[in-house]
């Protein structure tokens, strides 16, 4: 599924994305234009809820972590695409949540390669 979305009332460059999977899910795949380290890039983003991360660890029969923290993980470039994984403590990724996530990525000035955790730890095991 491929859809292109924009939201009126905000800067279009920060709001335009291409949905590569259905939205309104605990995991979505989107692409959008942005900047990284002073260069124009196309972000290839996998957005996950923390609950989805927890449930995936249970399915993989690995010890589930006691707590999880929100994170942004920027992976090595793949051609013209810059893969990024974002895990947030939200129920699902609907359009408003996706748009807020894009704004967060666009406005985050210290993005670097690797995994960057933030926020309070969240527990799903109890």
Automatic annotation (TrEMBL):
Q: What is this protein called?
A: Uncharacterized protein
Natural source organism: Thiohalophilus thiocyanatoxydans
Q: What taxonomic ancestry is recorded?
A: Bacteria, Pseudomonadati, Pseudomonadota, Gammaproteobacteria, Thiohalomonadales
């Amino acid at each position: 599924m491929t859809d292109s979305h924009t939201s009126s009332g905000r800067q279009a460059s920060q709001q335009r994305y291409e949905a590569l999977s259905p939205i309104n899910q605990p995991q979505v795949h989107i692409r959008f234009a942005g900047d990284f380290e002073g260069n124009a890039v196309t972000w290839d983003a996998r957005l996950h809820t923390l609950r989805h991360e927890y449930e995936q660890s249970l399915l993989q029969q690995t010890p589930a972590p006691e707590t999880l923290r929100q994170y942004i993980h920027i992976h090595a470039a793949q051609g013209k695409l810059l893969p990024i994984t974002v895990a947030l403590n939200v129920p699902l990724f609907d359009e408003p949540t996706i748009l807020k996530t894009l704004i967060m990525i666009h406005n985050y000035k210290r993005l670097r390669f690797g995994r960057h955790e933030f926020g309070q730890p969240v527990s799903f095991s109890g």
